[in-house]
Amino acid sequence: MDPKALETEAQSAIAGAESPPELEEARVRYLGRKSELVQALRAVRDRETGMTLNGIRDRLEAALEARRTELERAELDRALTEDVVDVTLPGDSFPLGHLHPITQARRQIEDAFLGLGYEIRDDREVETTEYNFDKLAFDQWHPARSPRATFFFDDRRLLRTETSPSQIHALEEHEPPIYMVSIGRCYRRDAIDATHYPIFHQFEGLAVDRGLTLADLKGTLLHVMRAIFGPDRRVRFRTHYFPFTEPSMEPDVSCGICGGAGCRTCRYSGWLEMGGSGVVDPHVFENVGVDPEEWSGFAFGCGIERVAQLKYDFPDIRALWEGDLRVLTQF
């Protein structure tokens, strides 16, 4: 190997490189691990030859760095002169999030009741047995009082099983007439399935005035259901029992997934239960010092997840809690 000839050849290749890939190719050829120069350095046995070859390597590395700087400067100059940017054009839009289906349903519910003149409340989630059961006229034997149905902290405190305690808070805080809706999270020890989840959202309504009847309750719920689901969905009412209302009934909405024919989601009935409702029991009024002879009222409570499931035809309510963006971004 002729050191001078090798250096001359390498300097010429470096200087002639017109792009970073060509420069990298020259580096590998003349300074790579398998290059002739590096192999010669590994075989050096005397000081003089070693100094000569190391000097060649240092000069080639310096030439490589200098040529790399020149190429980078040339690319920058080209970009500044050729790549024209119109600063008046709109920038790239970033992907934005959107409201969760539960939040969308909640806001639509709020709008429906605000249009009827109702007040919207958001009460506490940690309640006492007094407000969650006692003042709502729950009997001591009622299954909802069992630790197998309710999340208790101790004998007195619990996670509210429904938004119904808001009725008591509203009656204690304000003199009738009262028209309010409480919206928030509730907790029950429910088995998870296509229509149940241990954490859920509920809207609870209370209307107290002179002369209110069951017909006013049915008219209110029909108006709200049609505002949410549209005029094509069917609504029916079934008699039921609740400790704090008498008479009581449950509103059902026709299943949009099967069109009422019956499917797994509606348990092949063609209908999905929305919640509970009824005329306020006089004992509830007496518990908060309201005269049941002067005032009457009605109350109702429905699950917001159930509203979202019916509105968007979710076959399984668990999809609302799993956070799968492939599902949620459709709505």
How is this structure best described in words?
- The chain is α+β, with helices and mostly antiparallel strands and 331 residues long.
- The mean pLDDT is 87.
- The two termini are 73 Å apart.
- It has eleven helices and ten strands.
- Helix 2 packs antiparallel against helix 4 (47-82), helix 5 (101-115) packs across helix 8 (214-229) and helix 5 (101-115) crosses helix 10 (304-312).
- Strands 1, 4, 5, 6, 7, 8, 9 and 10 form an eight-stranded mixed beta sheet that branches.
Helix-strand layout with pairing:
Elements: H1 3-16, H2 20-31, H3 36-42, H4 47-82, H5 101-115, E1 119-121, E2 126-128, H6 129-132, E3 157-159, H7 165-173, E4 178-187, E5 199-209, H8 214-229, E6 235-242, E7 245-254, E8 271-273, E9 275-280, H9 282-287, E10 296-303, H10 304-312, H11 325-328
Parallel strand pairs: 1-4
Antiparallel strand pairs: 2-3, 4-5, 5-10, 6-7, 7-8, 7-9, 9-10
Helix pairs in contact: 1-2, 1-4, 2-4, 5-8, 5-10
What's the quick description here?
With 331 residues, the protein is of the alpha+beta class. It contains eleven helices and ten strands. It is elongated, with a radius of gyration of 38 Å.
Order of helices and strands: HHHHHEEHEHEEHEEEEHEHH
Largest sheet: 8 strands, mixed
Strand residue percentage:
15-25%
Number of strands: 10
Structural class per helix/strand content? alpha+beta
Measured between the Cα atoms of the first and last residue, the distance is: 73 Å
Low-confidence stretches: none
Q: Mean of the pLDDT scores?
A: 87
Assembly form of the protein: single chain
Number of helices: 11
> Helicity, in percent?
25-40%
Principal-axis shape equals elongated
Rg from C-alpha positions? 38 Å
